[in-house]
Amino acid sequence: MGKRSLSACPLRAITVMTLALLTAVGCSDSGESNRRLPDATTSATGGAAAPPLCSANEVRASVERLVAAMNVGDAAAADAVVAPKPRFQWFSVDPERSNSDASDRASLREFLGAQVAAGQQTELISFDFTFYRAEDRTGNFAFRVAQRSSEAQPTEAAGKGAVDCDTGLIMVWTVGPREPSA
């Protein structure tokens, strides 16, 4: 009996390709799929993959760019990490910037400049990519920060936000309320 190529045995070729596909997507013999990886980005409403700018790593990088710009005293660079209108929704920091002030994109650079002038330093303590939402193409996240300034006692605060998946810019940022650091 001579050698046959896979194409000569269509059923064998399909079986081999199916096994390769199942191996590639991580299915086991029991039919269970692999657990979701920490960097996986799926839609909250159907499992669609997020665009590249909305992976957990890219969303975290946007947050880290904002924090780093503020920490080096560059309000213009911090402002550049925040989405322009109409994607911008709000930037709130309790109690300094809330309510209608938080949704005023035009006053954000002035606020960031005041934070820089106060010598505020922020440390990202924790970051959690929460989900990608396909309907509005946003990567959502939660975080915890420690903040210090020359004018106040050190504090910690929880926050949340969202990144525009088309640009990688922050469109929602909320921090507070603050509590004294331990």
Described by its quaternary structure, the protein is single chain
What is the CATH fold-level name of the largest domain? Nuclear Transport Factor 2, Chain: A
Helix content: 25-40%
Mean pLDDT score, rounded?
77
Write the element-wise H/E pattern from the N-terminal end onward: HHHEHHEEEE
Shape: globular
CATH architecture type of the largest domain: Roll
The number of distinct helices, counting runs of at least 4 residues, comes to 5
Q: Give the distance, in angstroms, between the N- and C-terminal Cα atoms.
A: 78 Å
The main β sheet shows up as: 5 strands, mixed
Portion of residues in beta strands equals: 25-35%
Low-pLDDT residue intervals, each spanning 5 or more residues: 1-46
Could you name the CATH class of the largest domain? Alpha Beta
* Gyration radius over CA: 23 Å
Strand order of the largest sheet: 1-5-4-3-2
Helix/strand/pairing class, anyone?
Answer: alpha+beta
Number of strands: 5
Overall tally of domains: 2
In short:
The chain has about 180 residues and is of the alpha+beta class. About 30% of the residues lie in helices and about 30% in strands.
State the main characteristics.
single chain; 182 residues; alpha+beta; Nuclear Transport Factor 2, Chain: A; 2 domains; 5 helices; 5 strands; disordered N terminus
What does this structure look like?
By secondary structure, the protein is α+β, with helices and mostly antiparallel strands. It folds into two domains: 1-34, no CATH class; 52-180, Nuclear Transport Factor 2, Chain: A (Roll). It contains five helices and five strands; from the N terminus they run αααβααββββ. It has helices at 10-25, 56-71, 75-80, 99-102, 108-117; strands spanning 90-93, 121-133, 138-149, 152-164, 170-180. It has a five-stranded mixed sheet with strand order 1-5-4-3-2. A hairpin with a 4-residue loop joins strand 2 and strand 3. 25% of the residues are buried. Residues 1-46 have low confidence and may be disordered.
